Amino acid sequence: MTETTSAQSPADLRSVIGGVPLQRADRPMANTNPSLTEEVLAHVSLADRGDFSSACRTAKQAQQEWARTPAPIRGQVIGNIADLATANKEALSRAVTRDIGKTLTEARGEVQEVIDTCEFFRSEGRRLYGHTVPSEMPDKQLFTFRDPLGVAAVITAGNFPVAVPSWYIVPALLTGNTVVWKPAEYSASCAWVLYEVFSRAGLPPGVLNIVYCEGEEAFAGLSDALDEGLVDKVGFTGSTTVGSRIGELCGRHLQTPCLELGGKNPMVVTEDADVELAAEGALFSGFGTAGQRCTSLGTAIVHESVYERFISLLTEATASAAVGDPTRDVLYGPMINERFAERYEGFLNWISDHHRVLGSTATGRITPARPREGFVGDPESGFFYHPVILDGVRPSDKVFTEETFGPIIGVTTYRHLEEAIELSNLPGYGLSSAVYTTDPRTAFTFRSGVGAGMVSVNNSTSGAEAHMPFGGNGRSGNGGRLSGTWVLDQFTRWRSMNWDYSGKLQKAQMDVAQIEADMSFRLE
């Protein structure tokens, strides 16, 4: 990258297009620490729709040269990113914790996901295999090749501000595409740190561009860029509502975006389950990252014979878990920012009289008036909220059917496995799911019946690995998959080639040799 990018102060963040930072805004947005809201991490100059489409134009101009770079060499660049991320792992992790309030332990795991993704694709440039295919005619060969699409516009949420972007950007770059990345503006600081790591790895200017802007400006700029023919693939991680708009926009241009959307992820606990293990899994998947994962546990669907045992164990574990300062040993820290905290307050309004509220000493924001026993740190310093377990959730409840992005778990009962599967599918999401059982038949019956793209057996609903397909169905996405070799289909298209060296025109399906056979033969 150019020297101008390295001269920027982390406290003064601007979009970078073609290696050149945009001008500072007159009134930049303050990017603050959600666990210490008075701490301003950066001043972010937000771009507009014109800047977004300009970045796409720059990426388009850089794409052919990048695609001509041999794939193994592009793989070396990805390997450089892996090595740089490894060398800077602690600094990256602390940047994530400061920016979105994720615990330092989880932040380190997220940065490791970036490293794992890069390590997986480091050598994939040597394995972008096509196929040689036998022809039905003599002196003719058939081939297939993976070709890059062109420019990828990647728009990501901030709850996984470095891992999820890497799931898109790394394979897109490896396969010869250029990228325009719009991170969430509320996680601007750690997005910048990730961009710094990528830009130092040997990427030419214009191959990776970062654009800070609000969602509506990005949407408008994306629409302009699609109209101009500048974008060939859209990757989006975020809400189902926005994903539907992006899907509609891309559909008008005959493009299929890769959409990774929300989830209402079920956990089924069967009568033969290890209930202690199930409660432990529910605690982590429901309250890790303060419930702000797309794979967070939505509803625990528990067999009536073990229900009381499960709810007792989960309540005890939740009530005794440390909450607070994310740099210390806690289950979770704050909400990502004020906007998420306000939205979560709305979800709490869905609690009804028929619900029994468990898990903490109060509900809502943790304050001196509504204290949390064992809170770590100063609750008034950030957006900290009580964990909530809702006993007695019904299928007609909004807390059962809708995503609740925050530290809240619903619990309900079932009698038969078919009922549990039906309840799991009822909300219409299809991202992640879990079943706790010691019976293989139950595990495979659940797998074949549940609509989720990912199924865990005796594990939490959260926990992706870099070499497994990640993605959902229904309200959780349009079937696209990230990670592993499966993501290659998102950023490449197959091209076929036939080579006839017979010296004459051979017409497929017409000039094919005819085989003589006696098909009336029968053994006596």
TrEMBL record:
Residue intervals of the Aldehyde dehydrogenase domain: 27-496
Superkingdom as given in the UniProt entry: Bacteria
Gene3D superfamilies: Aldehyde Dehydrogenase, Chain A, domain 1, Aldehyde Dehydrogenase, Chain A, domain 2
InterPro entries from the UniProt entry: Ald_DH/histidinol_DH, Ald_DH_C, Ald_DH_CS_GLU, Ald_DH_N, Aldehyde_DH_dom, Aldehyde_DH_Superfamily
Keywords from the named record: Oxidoreductase
Active site: E260
Region (Disordered): 1-32
One Gene Ontology molecular-function label: oxidoreductase activity, acting on the aldehyde or oxo group of donors, NAD or NADP as acceptor
Keyword Oxidoreductase found: yes
Family designation: Belongs to the aldehyde dehydrogenase family.
Name of the protein described by the UniProt record: Aldehyde dehydrogenase (NAD+)
Lineage, opening ranks: Bacteria, Bacillati, Actinomycetota, Actinomycetes, Streptosporangiales
